[in-house]
Design brief:
alpha+beta; about 40% helix; about 10% strand
């Protein structure tokens, strides 16, 4: 609840989620979409399978492409 309140209080036109590429990350993404999807413009990035989390990506062009191709809920 506290994280939802913090995100809803941001002065941003869009929130982009990039959670870990594991079961916990997928559960977190579904919860975030459920709790935030109606109150903010929400997008998410699905990491390609070789990466567990965004910190594994060292190539800026890969990150830029993932952000560009983000999905909207």
């Amino acid at each position: 609840k506290k994280q939802v309140d913090l995100i809803q209080g941001l002065l941003s036109s869009e929130v982009v989620l990039c959670l870990d590429n594991d079961e916990a990350g997928q559960i977190g993404k579904e919860k975030a979409l459920t709790y935030l999807g109606q109150s903010v413009r929400l997008a998410y990035i699905d990491l390609p399978s070789p990466y567990k989390d965004v910190q594994d990506i060292k190539d800026k062009t890969v990150i830029d492409k993932l952000i560009q191709d983000r999905n909207y809920w």
